[in-house]
Automatic annotation (TrEMBL):
Protein name, UniProt field: Branched-chain amino acid ABC transporter permease
Keyword Transmembrane: yes
Annotated stretches, region: Disordered: 1-27
Any Gene Ontology CC annotation: plasma membrane
Membrane-protein topology: Multi-pass membrane protein
Residue stretches spanning the membrane: 35-58, 70-90, 97-117, 123-142, 203-221, 248-272, 287-311, 342-364
Alphabetic keyword roster: Cell membrane, Membrane, Transmembrane, Transmembrane helix
Main location: membrane
Domain of life according to the entry: Bacteria
Keyword Transmembrane: yes
Entry-linked Pfam families: BPD_transp_2
Signal peptide: none
Segments of skewed composition (Low complexity): 1-14
Length: 384
């Protein structure tokens, strides 16, 4: 007589099998995080818009209270440089195009608007539209030629075009660019609200609007189909070709959009600075944009803005620090290097590259991931 073997089945108790894991209220869901970021961005824009109406003083960071023209001038410049760095992020961080000639399109906006206002009777808005169309045409021509090559060859071709623009500006053809002395802004057809020291507040608000518009355009391009194809091309262009994509056209589109945004920022820069100088056409200026993007974090939109703003504030304030009595009283071994703002900026950049890989945005992302891992570990311990 054989007995049938009995199979002993073990099952999880119903209360433990069906009970959901407890939710940690401190860890937001992805949808909630998006809403929090949107609300935080809106609140930040409102705060920045209210700065000219407030009396906030940050000694060592700002030259005076936030309502003073000098401080608003520095802040507006920082916002415009942040917008320009954001346009370079679209080119380098999204499409992976290392360009050494992005300053060319910024210079088209600066010098183009100055020349049109000086040589024609067009009001500001029609003149700005003419210059914007000119920037698009220049970007199409340069991009169509430069994108025939890739890698360092592409960078060298863009550098060659930028240097040609720099030479053209310094040669002062027909007295149009002012040569080494630059070109002053003709305010005849510029609204009175954008002219004069007393209207610096309006120029600050204009710079803020430009930054918001540039950010919105960059965000739209990144989330569009062309942006996704551009990111895929950056990672593996051959694979995009195999699946039927057209990398050349997508890269050209991103190139033109980034150049057009730089042209728009250049026109606002002209109104803020009341003139054009040859430095904005130099390759050094493009390298400065690259430093800003790397400082903020390659591939991060807000990182590019933070990098541009931070670099501008440091560039503006380190000069005052270098000439201060505190530096003058130091021993020569410290006084000599600290009296050079570029030395301090270079040292800070080296420290960021060594100790903050991924820039400021990368450090913030790692900190956020660490907090999420700790929250998930605590959640698992509680559920156990």
């Amino acid at each position: 007589m054989t007995s049938q073997p009995t199979t002993q089945q073990t099952s999880t108790p119903p209360d433990r099998a069906t009970a959901p894991l407890p939710h940690d209220e401190n860890v937001p869901t992805p949808a909630r995080r998006r809403w929090l970021m949107l609300a935080g961005g809106f609140a930040l824009v409102v705060l920045l818009a209210c700065l000219p109406l407030l009396a906030i003083s940050l000694p060592g960071v700002l030259p005076g209270p936030t309502y003073t023209p000098g401080t608003l001038q520095v802040l507006a410049l920082a916002l415009l440089v942040g917008a320009l760095a954001l346009s370079y992020h679209l080119l380098f961080g999204v499409a992976g195009l290392l360009s050494f000639g992005h300053a060319l399109y910024f210079a088209v906006g600066v010098y183009g608007l100055a020349i049109v206002l000086d040589r024609t009777d067009l009001p500001l808005l029609p003149a700005a539209c003419v210059v914007l169309v000119g920037g698009i045409v220049v970007a199409h021509v340069v991009g169509a030629i430069s994108l025939r090559v890739t890698g360092i060859s592409f960078a060298m071709v863009t550098l060659a075009f930028a240097q040609a623009g720099n030479v053209l500006v310094r040669r002062n053809p027909a007295g149009a660019t002012g040569g080494e002395e630059g070109l002053a802004l003709d305010t005849t057809h510029v609204p009175d609200a954008l002219v004069g020291v007393m209207n610096t507040r309006n120029l600050y608000w204009l710079a803020l609007v430009v930054l918001v518009v540039v950010y919105a355009v960059v965000l739209w391009v990144e989330r569009s189909r062309a942006g996704h194809v551009a990111a895929a091309t950056r990672e593996n262009e051959m694979r995009v070709r195999v699946v039927g994509g057209r990398p050349y056209l997508v890269k050209l589109l991103v190139f033109v959009v980034a150049a057009t945004l730089a042209t728009a920022v250049g026109m606002a820069y002209l109104l803020l600075q009341s003139g054009a100088v040859p430095r904005v056409t130099s390759a050094d200026f493009t390298l400065t944009l690259l430093v800003m993007v790397v400082l903020g974090g390659v591939g991060s939109r807000w990182g590019a803005v933070v990098g541009g703003v931070l670099y501008t504030l440091l560039d503006q304030r380190l000069g005052a620090l270098a000439a201060s009595e505190a530096i003058a009283g130091l021993p020569s071994v410290l006084r000599v290097p600290l009296s050079e703002p570029l030395f301090i900026l270079g040292t800070l950049f080296i420290l960021v590259v060594l100790f903050l890989p991924g820039g400021i945005a990368g450090a913030a992302q790692r900190l956020s991931h660490r907090r999420r891992r700790e929250g998930a570990r605590d959640l698992m311990e509680e559920s156990a």
